[in-house]
Design goal:
The protein is mostly helical and about 230 residues long. The protein is built from 9 helices and no strands. It has one domain (about 1-230). Keywords: Membrane, Transmembrane, Transmembrane helix.
Length: about 230
């Protein structure tokens, strides 16, 4: 019971969320200051830095943490939709690391625009097509797994699904809008902050949510008789 009370009193999920959000906010403030007063230098501290900027690497770390927690949750609960979550965040990590969405957008835009017409608008059209394909694929998988899960899993799945919708809104929706304003200084800066900041805050919230799920599960396990734990999973 001492261990149970210790878990219940644990503030670690809230502490972790606060630390992540503070770091996210710090990167946003640094981006604004560098953009306004130092002509976007040093590039490595910008939210949209080319290559491996610090904010982007911080996002990669969150992806890896989420994948580790999700794998652990699958080990604990044996809920198969956690496999989907693991693959989904692995896909996000690979896409971000190799910038596959921009590569795919370029390929798709070339189907509708000649090289002489190629610009940010053309890339935006390719991004729109790519976004629609990803959204349809994501919704199809979500619907399939929702139909196959138990009622207990459905409640968890819906919470995660809503957070993922926010993440995709910033990562696809705002990013798509941003493509059409790349050459507009103030608008581009604002959309960069909304897009990257929204992704960072949402991903930090997802880290908190998955970690909280582990803590809640531990509390639940230690609150029932040991003989019944396997059956209650």
């Amino acid at each position: 019971m001492f261990f149970l009370n210790k878990i219940q009193r644990s503030n670690w999920p809230r502490i972790i969320l606060r630390v992540l959000l503070i770091v996210d906010l710090l990167f946003i403030v640094i981006h604004i200051l560098i953009a306004k007063f130092n002509n976007f230098n040093p590039d490595s501290l910008l939210l949209d830095a080319k290559g491996f900027g610090y904010p982007e690497c911080f996002q990669y770390l969150k992806y890896l943490v989420i994948m580790g927690i999700v794998a652990y949750l699958f080990f604990l609960k044996k809920w198969y939709f956690y496999k989907l979550m693991f693959l989904l965040f692995a896909g996000f990590l690979v896409d971000d690391f190799f910038q596959l969405h921009y590569l795919a957008s370029s390929v798709l835009s070339n189907l509708f625009y000649s090289y002489s017409e190629y610009n940010y608008v053309a890339l935006g059209v390719g991004q729109l097509i790519y976004s629609l394909i990803i959204i349809l694929f994501f919704l199809s998988l979500a619907l399939l797994f929702y139909r196959l899960t138990s009622n207990q899993e459905k409640a968890e799945f819906l919470n995660i699904f809503m957070l993922l919708c926010f993440f995709l809104f910033f990562g696809l929706g705002v990013d798509l809008l941003h493509m059409f304003f790349k050459e507009h200084g103030s608008a581009s800066l604002l959309l960069t902050i909304i897009e990257e900041g929204g992704e960072m805050f949402t991903l930090s919230t997802l880290v908190w949510y998955f970690y909280s799920s582990v803590v809640k599960y531990k509390v639940y396990q230690f609150s029932i008789p040991k003989a019944n734990r396997v059956n209650k999973q």
